[in-house]
Write a structure and sequence with these properties.
Length: about 325
């Protein structure tokens, strides 16, 4: 390999592997199974940045692997992302995903849940067919389990009306739910696919970068461009998510405002008054809570990159290691 492949080339190669692993509507022998195939292809065909798959590929290349063995592993990681999003949208009651109605809004919860289950199975099938090393398979099991733990924390906090949470609670939850599979797992999987023991810095620094990524997502949910963001603006407030922004506001608000916010968040999504959601949205922006979260994300980005820079630039292909650093920067400094 003489020069790193462009982001567009890597993204397209991962997408081709991903779609090739899915059933085709035109090959179905029944209309119901043609619909099933369309459902499985729906979220993947909506596109996406594929940052996780690209991180995996470039990390593997940096540590000496060749492109072709990396592509099915990256495609499997993107399949994980897609089935997890289907389940996440159902669990959160989300309306939109990547600028279109969520899958369960189009087909109903039972069929969407079934489609997510099928994609989960196809993720493992893709890995097995690629003869992925056992350490890669174990890492996938680890990332699925950690993501489920984080999702459990977040859902129980909302269902049990927890308002006594601190910043440390949020960081623990999001470390499990989003940070591990967003940054840590792609870095580790790239190294493992190259038959290299992942450096210790991948986990600690990757967690900081992955947490920063999720905090930025929370910020964009309140002040992002609706077209670029691709999800419902203020959806976190409608769903009652305990974000760092919300916890910061509750911590610093006066007693009357805090009670008003808590009363609103206790109301089920479908019964929440839009005027009150608009009030809380504006107060989060005005209070400095959003700015605090953005500053936290920037700090975590700086710390994570500082720890990873010497490691990645000492990789066998240090030029590609530099590409990994650029991708990691884009996790936090982004608009969608």
């Amino acid at each position: 390999m003489t020069a790193p492949l462009s982001h567009a080339q890597v993204r397209e190669a991962i997408q081709q592997h991903l779609l090739a692993a899915l059933p085709r509507p035109d090959a179905a022998h029944r209309p119901e199974l043609a619909e099933y195939a369309r459902m499985l292809r729906d979220y993947p065909e909506r596109g996406g940045k594929m940052l996780r798959g690209m991180l995996l590929v470039y990390t593997g290349l940096a540590y000496g692997a060749e492109l072709q063995p990396l592509l099915p592993i990256a495609a499997a990681l993107e399949l994980f992302q897609n089935w997890a999003l289907i389940h996440d949208d159902i669990e959160d009651g989300s309306d939109e995903r990547r600028g279109k109605p969520a899958l369960h809004k189009l087909y109903g919860v039972p069929l969407a849940l079934n489609a997510g289950d099928a994609l989960h199975a196809l993720q493992w099938a893709l890995l097995v067919r690629s003869d992925a090393p056992q350490q890669v398979l174990l890492e996938f099991a680890r990332l699925v389990e950690r993501t489920a733990q984080g999702q459990h924390l977040e859902m129980t906090w909302m269902e049990r009306q927890r308002f006594d949470l601190q910043e440390a609670d949020y960081l623990e939850m999001v470390g499990h739910k989003a940070a591990y599979y967003t940054a840590v797992a792609p870095l580790r999987l790239g190294a493992l696919a190259a038959a290299v023991e992942p450096p210790e810095a991948f986990e600690e620094a990757g967690m900081k970068l992955g947490i920063g990524f999720q905090i930025v997502d929370d910020v964009l949910n309140l002040e992002g461009d609706p077209i670029k963001y691709g999800k419902e603006i203020a959806g976190d407030l409608w769903e009652g998510k305990r974000t760092l922004i919300l916890l910061r506001f509750l911590q610093t608000a006066g007693a009357e405002e805090r009670q008003r916010a808590e009363d609103l968040l206790r109301i089920p999504r479908e019964q929440k008054p839009a005027q009150e959601v608009g009030w809380l949205h504006q107060r989060l922006l005005q209070s400095g809570a959003v700015a605090y979260a953005q500053q936290t994300a920037e700090r975590l980005l700086a710390e994570g990159l500082a720890a990873l820079k010497p490691v990645l630039l000492e990789a066998p292909r240090r030029t590609v290691g530099g590409v990994v650093l650029e991708l990691l920067q884009s996790l936090v400094r982004r608009e969608a």
